[in-house]
Amino acid sequence: MSTPISRAVFLKVLAGCGIAAVAGKLALDAPYLKGSKEKIRCRMLGPSSKIGHRLRQAAGNEKVSGTQSTRVTIIGGGIAGLSAAWWLKKYGVNDFIILELEKEVGGNSASGSNPYGAFPWGAHYVPIPNTESLYVRQLFEELKIIQGYNAAGEPIYDELMLCHEPQDRLYKDGAFHEGLVPKRGLQTDESAEVARFFELMLSFRRATGSDGKQAFTIPLDLSSQDQNFIALDSISMSQWLNDNNFKCKPILWYVNYCCRDDYGSSTENVSAWAGIHYFAGRRGTAANSEPNAVLTWPQGNGFLVEKLKAPLKGCIRNNLMASAVKQKGNKVLTTCLHSDTNEYSAIESDFVIFAAPRYVAAHVIKDQKQPDTAHTHSNDFGLSYAPWMVANISLRQLPDSRGLAPAWDNVSYYSDSLGYVISNHQEISTRQKPTVITYYFPLSQMQPKAARQKLLQSTEEEWSRIIIEDLKGMHPNIEKDIISIDLWPWGHGLIRPSVGLIWGETRKRMKEAKGNILFAHSDMSGMSNFEEAQYHGVEAAKMVLEKLES
Amino acid sequence: MTYALLITAFVISTCGLIYELIAGTIASYLLGDSITQFSTVIGVYLFSMGIGSFLSKYVEKNIAFTFVQVELLVGVIGGCSATLLFLLFNQIDNFRILLYSLVAIIGILIGLEIPLLMRILQDRLDFKDLVSQVFTFDYVGALLASLLFPLVLVPYLGLIRTSFLFGLFNLGVAVWTIHLFRNELPYKNTLKSTAYLLIFALVCGFAFADKLMGIAEAATFQDPVIYSTSTPYQRIVLTGNSKDLRLFLNGNLQFSSRDEYRYHEALVHPAMASINAPKDILVLGGGDGLAVRELLKYPSVQTITLVDLDKEMTVLFKNQGMLTRLNQNSLNNSKVKVIINDAFIWLRTTPQKFDLAIIDFPDPSNYSLGKLYSDTFYKTLKNVLKPGGMVVVQSTSPFYAKNSFWCVDQTLRSVGFNTTPYHAYVPAFGDWGYVIGSLAPFKPASQTAYPAGLRYVSADTLPPMLCFAKDMLPTVSSVNKLNNQSLVHLFESEWGEYVDAH
Ligand SMILES: Cc1cc2nc3c(=O)[nH]c(=O)nc-3n(C[C@H](O)[C@H](O)[C@H](O)COP(=O)(O)OP(=O)(O)OC[C@H]3O[C@@H](n4cnc5c(N)ncnc54)[C@H](O)[C@@H]3O)c2cc1C
Fold first, then answer.
1. C-alpha A177: how far from its chain's center?
2. Is A24 helix (H, G, I), strand (E, B) or coil?
3. Domain that holds residue B231
4. Fewer C-beta neighbours within 10 Å, C or N terminus of chain B?
5. Quick one: which of A476, A411, A465 has its CA closest to A438?
6. pLDDT tens digits for A290-328?
C-alpha cells in the first residue's frame, strides 16, 4: 500500500557465510573517544608493523627448529599468493605451502565483521573485467559470479553482486548530487572542458598501437608498446593535463580524485600513462548492466579472499613470516619466524613464489654471491608506496544528508579524504539497523615517508577526531550516531605508479626471476588492483608448472 | 554607551533578517514554489517595516522604554515564529493569513527598531555620523545573517532552534538596554522580570525543539489517535471514530476500515479463484492479516505462510480486539504460520513451494524497498512456486504513477511470468493497481469458484478491472533492476509531481 516518498533508508543484515574476521566483534573494552559528548569507542588495529621491522634484523643464519620440504613455497597470502595457489591446484600441484605473516590471509583485500555487518579493510570492488582479463573471467565463472553468457557473448553477472543503484554521489555546494564528476553549477567553458576530457579518454580507450595491441588494457602488460603511448609514462599526469590545456578546477579535482582513489597519490606523483589508464583501460561489458559497472560485496574483496581461501585449508600457514630466502643448489631454502613463539623454522622447496610486496624482497632475499649479508640492495628499487588510513565506522543509522539519497560511494568535493563506502549497500534486507561505513584517506598531501610517520605516530584519539571533523563537512550531525571507530593504518598501502616506473627499466628488472624464485606481487605491475595481483600470481604459477614439467 | 548602542543596531538587524529568511524558507517548505513564497514574504516584510518606521513618529516620550518593549515583543514573536508556523500549519484553514500576519507583525516591530534607536542616539552623535554609523552596522548585520543562515544555521541548528536562538538575541538586547538606561526607565523591575521569564521560555523551546517538532507531526491526523507505538521499523498509529478505523505507518495511510475490503478482495480473489484447489499460500508483507482473512475463505487451503519484517505489527493484529475483529482473527488460525524475517532473505533459503504468492509490500518509495520489486527478486520468487503457480503483486496506482505500475508488469514479464495487470477503485487510495504473474496463461475464474459473501470482486466485475483506459497506459518502458532501480526513480518523479501539484 501507499508509503509515499520518505528518506531512503538502507538496510542490512549480517552477511551470512564465512567472513574473514580480522577484527571481529566490537571491542567492548576499547576506550571511549575523549572530548566527545557521545560514547564512541575507538581503537587502532591494522597490519602488524612491528613484526615487519624484525625483518631488518634477521640475518638469514638464525637457528631453526626444524626443516620441512615442499615443492612450492608461496610467500604472502594476498590476492597474488592465493591466485598462484588457485592455479597450481587447478593444474594438479597440491604440494605447496602459503606463508602469511598476519593471522589471516588477504593482505590489502582483508576484511572484518562486527555485529552490524561485514566490511572491507582495504580493497572493496572489482570492475567488471575486460575480455582480455582472462584469468579474472575464469575465476568469476568458477565462483558463479558470471552465471552465463548472452547471445552476444556478454557475461551475465550475479545481480546481487553488481553494485546496486545509486552507485555514487558527490557532495558539492551544500548537497549531494549523482555521480562523481562535478556537473552542477559549472560555467559553460568548464562543462566544455569536462566533455573534452571524456572524449579524449574515450579515444584512448579505443586506440590501438602500431603493434596492433590495445593502447591501454588490463592486465597492463598486454598493452601496446607503441612509443606514442609508452612515452606518456615519462611525464606526470599533472604535466599532461597542463600540456593539454585542462585548467579548470572541476576537471582537475576529478582527475586528482581518481588518481588518489586508485593509486593513493595526487596527479603530480602519478605518470600520465597510469593516470590515463584509469579511464582508458577498462572496457568490460555485461549482458545485465551498464558497461564499466563494478562488482562489490559487503566485505569488499574479502569475499574473493574467502572464496580463494576455502579450498586451500591445510596449505596456509598463518603468523609465519618469511625472514630469509636463499637459493641452495637447485633448491630454495626459506627461513621463517613464528610471530607467536618467536621461533625460526625452515622450508626447503623446488620453487618460491614471492608474493609479498616487492620492497620486502630487499630484506628477505639473500644473494648467493654475497651470502648472509642482511642488506643486499640488488633488490631495492627505491619503490614508493602510498600510506593510507582506512576506518570502519559503526553508525546507529545512516546520517541525514541533503540531496541524493545515500549511495554506495559517498564523496565530498571539499575533503582530502576519498569519502566513504556504505558496506551494507549490497544487502537485500529492509531491516533498519546500525550500519558500517568504510572511510578511506590516502595521505597523498605529504611525502610518503613523512606521511607514514604521521600515520603511525598519531593516536587513535587524534585520528578519530580528524575523521569525525572531516565527515561533519558532509553530515553536520554525524557524531551523535557514531558507535565506534576502528582504524587501520596501511603504512605501505599501495605502490605508486611514479613517472617512469611502469615502462622503465626498473620494472623489467623487478620481474626477472632469481634462480628458482619468481615474483608475483601486484607491485610487479607498478600499480595495484585485483586484476594485476591475480595476473602476476597466475603467471608465476604457470612458470612454475612449466619448469616442473621440464 | 554609544558604541554599545551601535552594536545593538548590528544585532537587531541580523535578527530581523533571520526571521524573514525563516518565514520564507518555511513557506517554501510547506507551500512549495520557493520563488513565489520568498518574494511575497520579502515584500510583505519590507512593506511592514515601512509601516513600523512611519509609526515610530507617534512615540513621543520615553523612547528607551518603548524600544525595550519592542525588543521583548520581537524576541518572543520572532523567536516562536518557526514553531508557530509548523504547529499551526495543519490546524488552520488558511495558512497564508497566519504567515503574512506573522511576517507583518515582525516587520512592523523591526521597522520601529532602527528609528527608535537613532532617536536614542541623536543626542550623542551629530546627524551625519549617526546616519552613517547606524546604517553601516545595520547592513553589516544583514550580510552576516544572509551568510550564516544557509551555511551554518539551517544545517546545524534547523529552523526551530534558529528562530529561538535569535529570539534570545533580541531579548538579550532588551536586557542590555534595560541595564544601560537603568537610571531613566520606568517599571524597570517589571521589564526585567518579563525579559527573564521570556528568556527562560525560549531557552526551554530551544532545548525541547525536537519534541515540538514531534507535536507538530502528531497534529496531522484527522481522527483521534486510539493507539500508537514505535517499532524498530516504523511508527504505527491507529485512529478511529465510530465508523472508521484507520492504520497509518510512518504517517502514511495503510487502510481505512470502510473500504479495505475492496483493496484486499481485489488483491486476493482474481488469482486465488482461478487456481484449482489452492493448498499452500505465501503472503509477503501484509502483517495486518487482512489478505489472510480473504485467503481463509477457501476451504482447500492447507497452509498460509506469512512473512513480515515487523513482529510488533503482527502481535498487534493478533491481539488487539478492534483489529482482530477486522481481520476476523485470521492470524490466530491454525493454518497460518507467521515468520518474522526479511522477505528477500527468507525467500532465498526456503525449501517450501507454493501455489500462490501474494506480495503486499509498501510502495517502492526508497532504494531498499525498490529491491523488493527487482527482477532479481522476482526470479527468486519464481523458484518457490509449484508448477503452474502464480504471484500477485500490489503495484501502486496506475493512475497516479502509471509508468511505475507498468514497470512492475514489465519486470515480471522480463523474468518469464505471463502477466495480467488489473486495477480496482479503493476510495481511500484512488484507482489502485495489481499485477498477476503466472507460469501458465491466466484464465479468469467462473463465478462458482469465488467464495460466497464477497462484496466487490466477482466474475462480472473482473472483466472491467482488466481494462485500462488510455490515461493509464505507460509512456516509458523499463525493467527494474538492482543496479538501475528504475522503479524508484519513476515512482519518485510520478508521485512527486502529484504531491507538488497539491
Ligand atoms: C586501502 C586500499 C584500498 C584498495 N582498494 C582496492 C579496490 O577497491 N579494488 C582493487 O582492485 N584493489 C584495491 N586495492 C589494491 C590491492 O592492493 C589489490 O587489490 C590486492 O589486494 C593486492 O594483492 P597482492 O597479493 O598483490 O598484495 P598484498 O595484498 O600486499 O599481499 C601481500 C601479502 O604478503 C604478506 N607478507 C608480507 N611480507 C611477508 C613476509 N615476509 N612473509 C610472509 N608474508 C608476508 C602480507 O601480509 C600480505 O598478506 C586497495 C589497496 C588498499 C591499500
1. 26
2. coil
3. 223-253
4. C
5. A411
6. 988 999 999 999 999 999 999 999 999 999 999 999 999
Q: At what angle do helices B34-55 and B95-121 cross, to 10 degrees?
A: 40
Q: What is the pLDDT along chain B (502 residues), one digit of tens a residue?
A: 778 888 888 899 899 999 999 998 888 766 656 678 888 999 999 999 999 999 999 988 888 999 999 999 999 999 999 888 877 766 677 788 899 999 999 999 999 998 998 888 888 888 888 888 888 988 898 899 999 988 888 777 878 899 999 999 999 999 999 998 888 888 989 999 999 999 999 999 999 887 776 676 566 666 667 777 767 777 788 887 778 888 887 777 889 999 999 999 999 999 999 999 999 999 999 999 999 999 999 999 999 999 998 888 899 899 988 889 999 999 999 999 999 999 999 999 999 999 999 999 999 988 989 999 999 999 999 999 999 999 999 999 999 999 999 999 999 999 999 999 999 999 988 999 999 999 999 999 999 999 999 999 999 999 999 999 999 999 999 999 999 999 999 998 998 766 543 3
CA distances from B171 to B77, B148, B181, B196, B269 (A): 11, 20, 15, 8, 66
What ranges in B424-485 are assigned the alpha helix state H? 462-465
CATH code of B65's domain: 1.20.1250
Distance A103 CA to ligand 1 centre (A): 14
Cell of A388: 593510507
Q: So what's the ipTM on this one?
A: 0.81
B126 is catalytic: no
CA A396 to chain centre: 28
- Whole-number Å distance between alpha carbons of A30 and A27: 5
Whether residue A245 lies within 8 A of chain B, CB to CB, comes out as no
Residue A391 sits in the same domain as residue A482: yes
Flag whether the pTM goes above 0.95.
no
Task: Establish if A5 belongs to a structural domain.
Answer: no
**Structural domain range at position A413:** 19-46+385-495
Cβ pair B209, B158 in contact under 8 A: yes
Q: Which A residues, 276 through 295, put their C-beta within 8 Å of a C-beta on chain B?
A: 288-290, 293
Residue A3 maps to a domain: no
Contact list, A5 vs chain B (CB under 8 Å): 365-366, 492, 495-496, 499
Nearest chain B Cα distance for residue A207, angstroms: 29
435-464 in A: which are within 8 Å (CB) of B?
A: none
Instruction: Output the nine-digit C-alpha cell for B423.
Output: 486495477
Alpha helices in B363-444 (DSSP H): 367-370, 375-382, 402-414
Active-site residue (options: B280, B360, B363, B409) = B360
User: Is residue A448 within 8 Å of A385, Cβ to Cβ?
Assistant: yes
A17 touches chain B (CB under 8 A): no
d(CA B491, CA B365): 7
Neighbours of B1 (CB within 10 A): 10
Q: For A163, which of B150, B483, B496 is closest by C-beta distance? A: B483
Q: Can you tell me which residue has the cell 574476521?
A: A21
CA of B445 to the centre of ligand 1 (A): 62
For residue A497, how far is its CA from the centre of ligand 1 (angstroms)?
15
Using a CB-CB cut-off of 8 Å, the residues of chain B touching A431 are 232-233, 309, 342
- Determine the atom of ligand 1 nearest the C-alpha atom of A82: 25
In the three-class reduction of DSSP (H, G, I as helix; E, B as strand; rest coil), residue A380 is classed as: coil
Q: Is the torsion defined by CA of A156, A157, A158, A159 positive or negative?
A: negative
User: B485 and A164: CB-CB below 8 Å?
Assistant: yes
- As for how many domains chain A has, the answer is 3
Chain mean position to CA B84: 18
CA angle B227, B235, A435 (to 5 degrees): 155
* Residues B151 and B286 reside in one and the same domain: no
| Residue B474 shares a structural domain with residue B398 | yes
Domain count, chain B: 3
> Do residues B295 and B175 both lie within one domain?
no
